[in-house]
Amino acid sequence: MAVRVRVASGSGFDLLMAAAAVADPDWRTVFDAGQQSWESARRAGGSALLRDAARFGRFGWINLASLIVGERGVVSSARLRALVERTTPDELHLLLIGGRRRELATALDAAVLRDAAAGQTAAVRAVRAAVDAEGSLSQVAPWLLRTHSEEVHEACRRVLDALPEPPSDDDAARRLRTALRSATAENVLAVVAPGVRYGSDALHQVVLVPTVHVAPVIVVIDEVRRSLILHPPLGPDGEESTHVDLGRLGKAMGDTTRMAILAELRPGPRRLAELCTALDSPRTTLLHHLALLRAAGLIEITVPAAGPNVYTVSSQGFERLAVLARDFLRSS
Fold this sequence. Notes:
Elements: E1 4-7, H1 11-23, H2 25-30, H3 34-55, H4 57-63, H5 65-68, H6 77-86, H7 89-96, H8 102-107, H9 110-117, H10 121-134, H11 149-162, H12 172-182, H13 185-192, E2 196-198, E3 205-210, E4 219-222, E5 227-231, H14 246-253, H15 256-265, E6 270-271, H16 272-279, H17 283-295, E7 299-303, E8 310-313, H18 315-331
Parallel strand pairs: 1-3, 2-7, 3-5
Antiparallel strand pairs: 4-5, 6-8, 7-8
């Protein structure tokens, strides 16, 4: 079945990715604009705003992109706030904990997810067990699982109202649509999401969202019927604006944890849960390291139709490193 691709854009997506960086110190260092987003939030609302944003965790804000991805046209921050306002507390809470993500939606009954959002102990335990068992990319902030939906809804509105408007690339969607008219959907996906491989029947409908606030990595929300991929904007010539260069490769390898991940992956593919066990490291720690390694082209991620993602070393990435190093020496 052919992949169907459409483009979504707007400052609403930028605001959510900025909120994710404010919420998570690890991802604040991953996103190029992450520290700037945090400093802007601190100036706008002080420690109270930073604390409120952090309660949702980065995945809470990322999951909220599913609320606006169905909107047609440019989705502004004002439109995002209006949609949050009119969404019922129960529905918003379910969305924030990842109720639309394929990982949880296929592992748990919808009623269990709704009960977890309502704070029922058995359902909360079931969600935590499912996340642990699957090695899921979807993390649920503890605060979301112990707080009433009305309070969650109010806090979400309060944070979005207080966060300053982030800068946007107004031409990013136009450049992406131009690229889609001159190339196949599969080729465009290979450019905007390099190193990500979808298994048979795992990917049919894709929504691409260019935003400067995820550079240099990508953020993927795999829902049951579609996948949302937020990625750095293409450059004016249609190439990736944050192309992998020697400096980015060097940064990716200049960390003991990332080198340990590469060493663990060298013998063969691994799932996230296996990496956590082998390296005795929590999932939240490894995920941002894996994102940087993928952005540098040193690993690839395979997304199967069912089950957790699989990580492998990319031989092409190391070959590129060798070429760039040789070119650097020849140019000196």
